[in-house]
Design goal:
It is a multi-pass membrane protein. This protein has 327 residues and is mostly helical. The chain has one domain. It is built from 13 helices and no strands. The C terminus is likely disordered.
Length: 327
């Protein structure tokens, strides 16, 4: 029973972060499942089965508030589904001993990315006038989907910053489109795991616990981001992921430190860096507020940033997305 309650709380917290930042539900949930001893393929399958429900609820909420660009959803979501199915099949055919450090390494890389990105810069919003092209969205979706399935998360950490940095979408539509397209990725990854594994190792009670927590969180994520800065949330979540997966790697056959004191020193040093990163993020956020540059718009909620006033219903602009030259 305590495990079920913990999973529900993790699902709730992970969805609050994901709904605010457009990333981190899968990475956070999978990290916890690995930490309590679930094998990698079953952990990723459990999370993706739960995500079918959470992404549907999140996508519906974003659609209701006009945060979804359906062309982007299809152009990135369909290749993402293909990549996720391939990634699930690949992970399911690795032995548990080989897969656990591989998944932890992917999660560690994503955690480092989140920690560094949000600590130093937040989410980038200064290049929103560049066009989105099919030849950019399709490979991005394919890679993000594969990473998402093999790492138990990664669709948001790969897709959201890439669209913000390279696309013309305003931040709220980036987050809304990524969250909505993740529904296709979750279905494809789940099918891949079920075809390869059956229901072996998947605890459907855990799936339900994560799902319930995520469904509760989905409609209040927009409210939370007004209270807790996205930049601080990103740094906090990134640090948890780095710390947990470093511990897993240190205890794997790849490293096999075998010395509790050495492991403690390494994890202690990471914890100090993590605390420093959160402190830095808080200070940077306060400076942004002082200069009138809060990060609410940067993570996709609240009013659009100045200059993002193009109407949503201008067909000539939508039709020209793939043809206009990069400026």
């Amino acid at each position: 029973m305590p495990t079920i309650v913990l999973l529900a709380l993790v699902g709730l917290a992970a969805q609050l972060v994901d709904g605010s930042l457009g990333m981190a539900y899968g990475v956070t949930s999978t990290t916890l499942l690995l930490a309590i001893g679930t094998n990698p393929a079953a952990a990723s399958a459990t999370v993706h089965l739960a995500e079918i429900g959470t992404t549907l609820a999140s996508g519906a909420a974003h659609w209701k508030f006009g945060n979804v660009d359906w062309k982007v959803v299809l152009r990135i979501g369909v290749p993402g589904a293909i990549g996720a199915f391939a990634g699930a099949t690949f992970l399911a055919n690795l032995s548990t001993d080989a897969a656990k450090p591989v998944m932890s390494l992917i999660l560690l890389a994503l955690g480092l990315y989140l920690l560094v990105r949000f600590t130093l810069k937040g989410l980038r919003t200064d290049r929103q006038n560049l066009p989105l092209r099919k030849r950019f969205l399709a490979p991005l979706g394919l890679v993000a989907g594969f990473v998402d399935a093999t790492g138990g998360g990664g669709w948001g950490p790969v897709g959201t910053p890439a669209l913000l940095a390279s696309g013309r979408l305003e931040p709220r539509k980036v987050v809304g489109s990524i969250d909505t397209s993740e529904f296709l990725v979750a279905i494809a990854a789940s099918l891949g795991f079920l075809f390869a594994l059956g229901s072996q190792g998947i605890n459907f009670t855990w799936v339900l616990a994560l799902l319930i927590g995520g469904l509760i969180a989905a409609p209040i994520a927009a409210w939370l981001v007004r209270k807790v800065p996205g930049r601080v949330l990103g740094s906090a979540v990134g640090g948890v992921i780095v710390l947990t997966n470093t511990r897993t790697i240190l205890r794997s056959d790849w490293v096999a430190v075998g010395d509790t004191a050495t492991e403690g020193y390494v994890l202690g040093a990471i914890a100090l860096v993590w605390v420093a990163a959160i402190t830095w993020s808080v200070r940077a956020y306060r400076q942004d507020l002082a200069t009138g540059r809060g990060d609410v718009a940067a993570v996709g909620h609240g009013p659009s940033a100045p200059g993002d006033s193009a109407p949503d219903d201008e067909p000539e602009l939508v039709a020209a997305v793939d043809e206009r030259p990069t400026r």
